[in-house]
Amino acid sequence: MSVPSRFTAILIAVALLSPGQGVAQSDPVEEEIVAAVDAQEAVAIELLQQTVDMNSGTMNFEGVRQVGAVLREEFDALGLQTEWVDGTPFERAGHLVARHVGVGDGPHLLLIGHLDTVFEPDSPFQTFEREGDRATGPGVVDMKGGNVVILHALQALADAGVLAEMTITVVMTGDEERSGRPLDAARAALVEAAEAADIALAFENGDSNPATAVVSRRGSTGWRLEVTGTPAHSSQLFQPEVGAGAIYETARILNGFYEALAGEPNLTFNPGVILGGTEVDYDAFGADGTAFGKSNVVAESTIVTGDLRAISPEQLQRARGRMSFVASQNLPGTSAVLTFDDGYPPLAPTDGNRRLLSLFDEVSRDLGFGAVTAVDPRNAGAADVSFTAGLVEMAIDGLGPGGGDDHTVDEWIDLPTLSMQTKRAAVLMYRLSAGAAAVQ
């Protein structure tokens, strides 16, 4: 990975190379890039329809592999070296990785997408349907549209004769919507690629508004609270030998979380499931369970599961510490165990990420598409780009097309934004490469 001082020089060079207006019309290479995207617009939509019509719900391993195979052929045709990373070690289909080693000395770019959707084969939502400039379909915007942007941006760079200069790795995971376990195995290929790269560009749809991009994402960590009390007849509640019971202690802990952490900017801690009584049984994989108890019996057990979302590793660790302290101050006759899993890490809003957004904003303005501002991190969930945090000099996400209602049977895409985002991404990649060449 390159040193920060070199990237400062690259960004200065990019700024000097950019006249600030009408670049797509005055720079011959950028003009060729834009023309290449326009020429491939219908082909891009055809590829989008082809992949949307293939069910690739995360747990439909064969479908995920099928979508990966279609895109792999496209990358192969562009001259990239492709690899299918088998997902057996993390109980998923696997990932598609494509690599291109350029002859130039520009930054190593990491492009991130994902092959899977939330719609499994039993979903009623299975096909691409178009009406004018709007189309619906499973994963059409999250994120098969983004995958098409990646592929056709590279095609436009090749058609303009500049792809040969560029070093690029593409990672399309097969389990973004429902990550495999163990998570470190499921994200090993992505982390390895990030360690070798300088800049990460991710093509999720962000908040589905192309006037915005993502420079920070909150992480998502799971937590589980297990509380034990002393079972007894309810008439003996609060007696020294019985104490408060599991449900009162659970209520105290959850209220303690609220009092200690509510209101902290960009932090949320949601208890999503709670079971309590004399007997409880919770199936974490199926996210369901049962509880048995009586109103005249002091509850013996409770289980609560939830998630914790923070904007930075420091905020995450601080929140975990406060929650653990609250859970340790037990009422009489009770005990509690609070555990956390290692979920998606935060992507903090670094200066490098902001500089990259500034460059993307300039590209958009120069191409006549208007300004691009940062998404409020409260409006962007966890995503694979977060695994690049601390490994690349700068990262940005939300470069996919516009649309809405993702993760629902009304998911749709604004088809003209497919071409727009492809042009913006391709020109950004070209300028990063040209800026590097300018400082050699």
How does this structure look, described?
By secondary structure, the chain is an alpha+beta fold. 36% of the residues lie in helices and 21% in strands. The protein has twelve helices and 18 strands. The chain has helices at residues 4-17, 23-26, 28-39, 41-52, 61-77, 144-159, 183-186, 188-196, 246-261, 313-328, 351-366, 416-438; strands at 81-86, 94-100, 108-114, 129-131, 134-136, 167-173, 199-202, 212-213, 221-228, 268-277, 279-283, 288-292, 301-309, 335-340, 373-374, 394-396, 403-404, 412-414. The strands form five sheets. Strands 1-2-6-3-7-16 form a six-stranded mixed β-sheet, with helices on both faces. It has a four-stranded antiparallel β-sheet with strand order 4-5-18-17. Strands 10-13-9-14 form a four-stranded antiparallel β-sheet, with helices on one face. A hairpin with a 7-residue loop joins strand 1 (81-86) and strand 2. Helix 11 crosses helix 12. The longest helix has 23 residues, at 416-438.
